[in-house]
Queue: 3 jobs
Job 1
Amino acid sequence: MATLTDSEVEKIFSGAPQYFARSEGHYTGAPHPSVAFPWDEEVEIRDLTDHTQIADKAWSSITAWPHITRDVKSDRSAAQRATEAEVKRRAHFYPRCRERPNMLSMFGLEKGSMGYQAALELGVADSLQEELRGFPGVAARLPAVLEQRKKMLNAKDGLRHVDEHVIMEQLIKNGQRYNQRHMRERKVTSELYNELFLQILHPPTKVLDHRDPYSLAVQIMALVKVLAAPSTWIDFSHVEWRLRLGQLLWDEPVGDEAGDGLSVGTGDSAADIHEERYWLLLQILLACELLVRLDAITEGEELGVESIRPAEVHRFEKDANKSVKWSLILARAWLENIDVVKTEAAPPDSADEGKPSGWLATLTKRMSLSRDHGSHSHRGFVYAIRGKHVHRQADGLAHFARLLRWPEADSYVAKISENCRSVAEGTPLMMPLAHPSSRAHSRPSSHHSPLPSPGSRPQHAPCRRTKFSTVLQPSGWLTKSYVSGLMLPGEGLCYVLMAALLENNPEALSRLGPKATLSGGFVYSGKSFWSTACIVGRVLAAGKGAVECMGWISSDVIPQGFGEGWLDVEAEETKEDSLQIDRKARLWAKKTIERESDVLGDSDPGSVFPADFIIPFENIYRDKIPPFLDIKLKALDLRAARGSEHPASTQGDSTTATSDLTAPSRRQNQTYVATATFAVTNLDFEETKEYTVALSMDINFVTAHPCVPSHHVKIMKSPSSPTIQQVDITGNSAGGRTTNIVGHPLHKYYTYTVLHLSELLEKRDVSLDSLLSSYSSAPHRPSLAPTTSSSSNMAKVLVIDCITNFQPLPQEHEIPLSPVLSRTESNTSAMSLNSPVSPTSAAPWGNGAGGGLSGALLESASKKMHSETRRRQFGSDMEILARAVCAEKGWNALISRRRRGCLACAIREAGALGYKVIIRVD
């Protein structure tokens, strides 16, 4: 038999995603996972993704990766759009440091799932690194920090004593420079040099560049040295500090005055808070100075007027540690979203008179917390920070409420719009300044942590997802963080969005209570809302009608016996995941990831035969036809977790104990474990069984990457190919059911076994290894000559069939609209597949029963249905059950939807991720 040439291999696997993990360079941390189509040039193939697009520009700060948002509403003028386009064309410096996991990949096409990149990066997540290294607490009050700051201020080539007036004036200048075109005159470089070394830093004690002692490179090196000083600045590589940024800027210290335990006060004196705000503003200033220079030199290199030596680039990457690069990300967020304005000082006690009311209006009030209320305006001026995009952020909050189907969302959105109209755009968000005499001379406070930790940390094991609990207040610091737009990349934006939604809904805030577990869930107005950080949310997301938006799930399923209030659900991490952290994470095994997902398996590229491949199927059962099933979710139950029982929950009657906890005040410090009960009816025998499944393991669900079937699958349709021996190419299979044989081939290296969901329910007590070991007798598996690596009697992947005999195909108006493949058969031994109709969707699969939607119907329906509406149509109680079983068993699972991608590509992706379970759904 002739071997396949390289050209034939490329044709066969056209449209098949390939999975990689490659390092981005020195000093960049763990490798970067990626999915590519190296043998395809068509845009409709190369642009396929396994995650959703950010739906609003107001949420763009969730990631540091370059991206394009899908703006739903835009009322910008032509001049504004032209200005923005001009800015986008400018070369900007991007530090090779981004959030982990990649937030672009955190919201998979399947609700409650993530993409390939995020799944691999969970093992090296920022929050996990924080757990491993130990969060240093609030560094400002530690004696080592005070000593380091004093040492820096006394150094000859370090930081000067900078007055807050200078800080604000320089921030204003940097904001102006950031919006200007690059000026390449030498006098500008000299001006920057003089401003930096006469007002902010001491000049270098030795010549750093003999060619040009005043160059931008010299200034950059000096700024990097100061910002990289240990134990001096806030390290925003820690997730908790990214969340605390807004708290440090806008939260009001209340000391020990609030005795109800609900205060978000700092527990420290106002002087301590002012000092930390001073040092934070100074850090922002230094980062902005550095970023403006990096942008200038980057644009100059782009235009050919600057020359950067490789040695300078290498030194920068080495000296600019992770903390410096995160300071640069903060500087970018500041320059993009914040304006600093200087206004005349208002007369005493008249600042708030005549101000409009409303939650946006409260942001205009001066929060004068200084010990000397006039200290920051002794020059006759008041400096204030203001958000540039207040209305954009308000529209984004309204958009979030609509997409999440918030109760009475229309009236709530109207209130937001009314508040927006009551406050002129660009209203300043007042920021008090500290008196400079407080810096580095304060005595250590008796409180070692002037800011409370909003996160509740597990004591038993590191956590891949951030746990976040806080106290909500009307127009609190979380709302101010969101409205200003000053937020740092990471999952924190998901928590801030929900907090802003609740803080500006007085009725919801009063009914739910102020203490919020934003990494859990809550019941409100006949619906439940769950963070995707909670396993219950990820499981319920698979239901029909469930909605996902920015890390939150809205569901009609309510825990049995629970009234309105917050819910904190406990789940245990799997043993396998707990071991794969930091340097042991799978992401570091770059060669293993690529080898175990290679399209050619373990074969020699020079000796690949057609007989080495099959086309896998999930719904061919020759010995036993699976029964027709009807599955209904009957109840979601929550029980007090061990060690956190409320006194009322110690009763013998669990139902009574649960009802005693319906009041929010009874559940404030309670954690629960979740179970789900399903009724499974065998329609063949009209027999119903109930199954109770515990959602006890904190597993992950990943959307299988979409693929496009090759035009050249017919190359495999030779009489000697095992595919012909196992598949009836006429489309008729056992029991008269139709089999769609489109898809990519799978190399025999990838052993797998298919188990129908009904059979899996009967074998819930059987281990995964035992289920995988039965693959050799699976009726759909061809008898292949085993290779060296696949000679064991165990399959690599378990495919849970959630398609066969569950429900009839949906009507045409129920089919998720997407590019549909129509097939034409020229004869009984060859089949050609047409290209996708539309390049914009990520679901290039047609009706599995043969034939597809007509072009006219597709075009007509596509105009009527939004992509988010299509996504809501997926899901059923059957899919909830499949996820629940995986959560009970502790199986991380890949979710492969038939019309979106083929089973062969899903099996290869499972190999890349190291997953052993695939849930195959219709």
Note: Residues 138-438 form one domain.
Job 2
Amino acid sequence: MRTRSGLLGAALGALLVPLLAWVPGTTATGAALRARATDPTPTSDTRFTAQPLPTYQTNGVVYAVEAVGNVVYVGGNFTKVRPPGAAPGTREVARRNMAAFNATTGALLPFSHAFRAPSYPIPSSGVYDKECSRGARAGTYTCDTVYEIRASHDRSRIFVGGDFQTVDGRVRGNVAAFRVSSGALTSFRVDRVYGRVRALVPSASRLYIGGQISQVSGRRRYKVAAVRTDNGALTSWAPRVNGYVIAMAITADQKRVIIGGDFDRVNGQLRRGVRAVSAATGANTAWSGNPLRGTNGGRRSYVTDLAVDRDTVYVATEGLGEHVFDGRLAINPTNGVVRWRNTCLGATWAIERVGSSLYTGSHAHDCHAVPGGFRETARHLLDKPGDEHYHRFQAEVVGSGAPRLLHWMPTTDGGIVGSLGPRDLTYSPTADVLWAGGEFTTVNGDPQQGLTRFGPARDPGVPSIAPEQPSAPLAVSDASGRVRVTWEATDDWDNATLGYSLLRGGTVVATRSATSSHDTPRPTMSFLDTGLTPGSRVGYRVVATDGAGVASAPSTATTVTVASGPDAYRRRVLADRPQLYWPFDDQADRVAGTLVPAGGGGRYTSGGVTRGVPGALQGVPDDTAVQLDGVLGMARGRSRTAAPSTFSVEVWFKGSGTGKIVGYGSSQTTLSSYADRHLYVDTDGRLVFGMYDGSRAPHVVRSGARVDDDRWHHAVATHGDAGTVLYLDGRRVAGDSTKRSTSAYAGSWQVGGDRLAGWPKEPAQRNYAGTVDELAVYLHQLSPETVAAHHDLGLGG
């Protein structure tokens, strides 16, 4: 854990020794580094830090958390708790399904009660309700879980609901109450509740109960009921719900109870998953909308949690089926009209309103349609397992308009029951701390089971998470005595804006700041380092700093020989105004560096790419290329833009096989749905360039010579007013003079692979097995003279 104490001077001071070890250089003082690297000073984007506070853990799942005063009550399916940092099975303290903690310090409190239920034989199949646990005797299981904890209307008691039948040996069928002042079990008792209790909502005089209940006090009830808060006596309140009730809430005026869950009808009226009923009579109130779709038997959305404020009910949902809605809703509780809809994909199971923000626990993986959101993160089919990820916690600003995601990205693993991660949230205004319970076993990649909490970002005593280690910079010496350095912004889970220090040796030579959000394309920064000694070797690293002065680990070093003369090829390419230029001189990491920061860099796949192989350019000592294996190896653009209609794409390549060298594709994570503007080597070993022009078949032009001879070739393909032209090794080899219409879609440039199905002489292996170098893309057509000049300069001419 990195904290605010120590700040950047200490953090970077500790880094200077290893920095000096890898390349000669002078050392700036800690004070100088601190002054430069934090200029300008970034600020946190949200109320809470993404670095969790030290928190007790459980040996099972937490389903309920509730803050009352300076106490947080925790319920679930567990038998023991253990201190922060303790490994499973060590330093454990007995707490059966419920515990209490000091909301400010996190200390375990004496509150301790035993929730129990009968044991049943495990079926011969070995399958039983996964939310239950093994019984005390071998071959048995028991369902004694605490699912819900809610403070009474006057906050003098807490009501607890679940599967349990006794508390401390006293009969309390699925509902119990405890004094907040003493922690003692009260005499409150509801007679004979049959069925699991998942939801509780107290008013001044009634406790509303929801779940899978079928009877209370010997009277038939249809998933919901209400009892008196003083003695637990059943009332006449009896709406009829035809499915599982998971969440309930009461409006600020106490007139309506909001019921949420997996059902289709309330009091006979078709309403999927959520609706309001009268708190007095149980009759349906005005509810014009039916925002969720599906039926209990098929693809459907259902409600998992509810939160209310003065005039809005916030709804968390789960979706069963591909791309079934499982985001969040804001609904007017007086009439059921939807105020806004958050369409993030990834089931939401916890929701809590704090100030002007809504905090959620989910496994969001695609929020591309939400302001401040991100594209698909869980389906990187070309990446290794573990690269894909979910945003288990999110925060969004809510109000009268559509929500906007904030830059707050702590996360957990899926956990041990349903892979759902967080299951409940509660905010303690006394401590100004957000608590989260769930089935997770890690938080931000570190071991932490069942429970975590996040403190206020503005508190200097609260730990701040360090920015992620930046990728290695790209360094190219394109003229005598100077080096052009570019680097990509990194991530910080609770600061969108970071400061960056570029170090040559141990000396800070440049500072920048940049803002990036979630998984959107990251900005690229640049610096032109001049006055260097020709022929010397210099090395560069990047350090990122957050608004609290906490520094990242330094990036991997990039070293380069300072040129003694001009790099004529790259100077000419840059002079011809490329929109994108990847020289493929990257020495480490997965970022394909760019010499045109505005065009953005690329991202290599995790496998199939070998960096640092000899490049195509002659007379350039440090020129390297990347070798692709023809199976996984690719580089894909990070910036997603509209496919260009007028353009030139230029690349050097060599290989003995076939496949797609470069093209445009709609996906940056999987096989593209739309792809064209291809340069590929066909089954005859010839170079093909083509586009879709509105007809069913792609329009292609093709070289006469073979290019599968394992020798370097220079290719340029252009399209625009001058028609479609293919150049090979400096000469025009195919084309026509017709300017054609082009297919319109958003995507990025893809090197080494992507969709080729249905193209002429389509190779059996769509990915290119070979070496590529010096990719440049222009938003204009290069002239024949310019193409020839580039080719000749690349050969040292």
Note: The chain is about 5% helix and 40% strand.
Job 3
Amino acid sequence: MAEALILGALVGDAVSKLSDAIIHVMKTTSQFKSKLTQLQETVTRIKSIVDEIQKHNQVLDRPNQETELFIAQLKSAQDLVLKCEHIKWNFYKRYRQSLKLDDLNASMLRFFQIDVQLQEARDVKEVLVVVKDVQNRMDRSSGGWASSVPLLKGNVIGFDDRVRDLKVEVFKDWDVDDSVVVVVSAAGGCGKTTLVTKFCDDPQVQGKFRKHIYFATISNTPNLKVVVRNLLQKNQGGQQPDFTSDEDAIQQWGSFLGEHKSEVLLVLDDVWDASIVMAFKFKSPGYKILVTSRSTFTQFRTYELHLLNHQDATNLFRYSAFSEGRNECNIPDDLVHKLVKCCKRHPLALSVIGGLLKGTHMAKWQFMLNKLSEGFGQKSVLDLDEDMRLRLATSLDVFKEGSEIKECYLDLGLFPEDQKIAATTLMDIWISLYKHDEKGSATLNNLFELSSKNLATLLPIRKDSLAIANYCDENAVMQHDMMRMLAINISSQEPLEHRKRLIINANDQNIRELPQTINARLFSISTDEAFSFKWNDIRAPKVEVLVLNFMSKIYSFPQFMQNMESLTVLVVTNYGYYFSDLHNFPAPQYLSSLTSIRLEHVSISSISASILGLVNLQRLSLIMCKVGNAFDETNLKIPNKFPSLLELDIDSCDDFVTFPTMLCNLVRLKKLSITNCHELSSLSEGFGNLTNLEVLRLVSCSNLKSLPETMSNLQKLSVVDLSHCLHVCNLPTHIDELGSLRTIHTRGCTGLHELPVSVKDLCPLEVICDEETSLLWSHLKGVKVQVIEEDRFSTFLKIVPREMHYN
């Protein structure tokens, strides 16, 4: 108290001296009168605010930091004002002094508008916390609150907009639905509990539910009797209610709601099973249930909690890394932004890494950035903090150890971050590893499951994709960066020679550390464009899946591929800017077990002979590849090309102009998919030799004008997809001879103006089309027409994720 009185006297003295100086100078010179008048007004305004804060500090027994800062400001201002007296006619000096006065006034205003008001707001918040705590105690003693909402920890950043959006969801249809359930869904560590806690603390929510907000943490193995007991006991004068069973406990909760005439908000935090929510769901006016879960429950409204935007992520990181937000070590902003990027905008990672760097000097920051940098072979944030890794790993507790779905989640770590993973690729892998069906239904089920648990994200797909014979062609998935890090971290717990999945972000050092014999079933190697190290002579006799990710114009396959006698699936992806020329592809005799190859953004001419000689290859996918003359029969002297090939997928290959005659001899081929090949103009007459073909997809081939008449030979063809083939103007004349045809897609076939007469004999037939092309089919008997309206994810000009350039 004495200190506060002394400081108060010092403030008054400093203000008086500055005011006297301003008045004195204005009397002796007229050069700076307007500037000094502004300064006088600013000082007067600030003093009244500081006086109020000084009173609050006396009550709160808080050090008078603001007053001390204000006194320092006043003394500096006094010195600057007195200098004005000695500047008379020197124009340059007057100009410079005038600028200094402007800066002084702006500085004082900033002090008033930012520092002082922030400190005042802090004090008000602390008083509110005290008042709220007292109110909570009073409510509990009177039986008002059943279960206290936890207090927020620290400064909550980036949640104001989220609280606003969540209020819209909870208050929506307030008078229509008797029992609204909203699920806040996100992966572990994203701030679900923080959001609902801040939601309960919102004044509008407080005003709506008053003291009738009930909060219960559920977790993985809830005891409903204990949960309901904690909810009800404070409403029964502190007496613990008695239940004979879980059903009895829930029933008593329902009875309590029936007797309760006010609005009630029940918050169920960390729910693992939707049945728990259903147990608490009763029809009662004004009764709302707010849930947090790592899973997405489709039967309830869902609020998906996304990662922070860059600005909020940066603010949270600064709050965690700097004391009271002050950058005392002068860490460059560029270094801060790079570390924020390494943390993937994930709240838990930002808080942990920021906390590890708090109070350290720039050398430690740079060392941390080097560890976490996006270069290949570096560590992840999970390698630096065990507690964070364990907290994220709880997201997997919903799966049994060794379960197939958990294994599928771990398999996603084979692919680079922020990249789409085709469902067909996963299907090939999971057919090999887990004996999935070839139609992809098991693959899709697993992807839906992973998506519902927020362990992966299913990307938007065509609206009619489910009608494509249950194939995975139109599906893709991406893995959240932190969840990918977790998958890699879990897969890397065992020694290199014993890992089931060996995931290598290659640099010279970690290649040297590879054991001579690898026992993994899945092997992923990622290299950047600077990688040039020669691979060791490694044996990998158990590897069934090999994923090669690289970023170079020339890529040489590792020579140890010749030792992979068990290899069944090969995925080769160039993530660089230019097409990549491939070299050193193993001779066919070394890859006799290979059944599936996916090549993306590469030139295949140099390896086509080797691929064509793979006698057991069943599926080939060419994605955004440079095909060239790879299938020119005059250049290939191989007697039996693709003798076992069942599926051929060609997508976004811009130099694929015509369907080669050589490929018309694939007598075992069951499925042919050519999509987004806008230069494809014709299919050879030999197309009719594909007599075992069951599914034909010619999607978004905008330059294709007609289908060969020999298609009528394809007696096993059951599905034809011509979606967005703009210039196809006719179907085969004898289309009625396709006795197995059951489904045809004609969405976006704007050039198709009439049908062959024989189409009337195709019965039964399902046609999937848009409103315009439906007019061609609607009059036909025995034809079921399904109209799918256009959507923005499926136009004939498919957006390719990277710009392609030919060398």
Note: The radius of gyration is 35 Å.
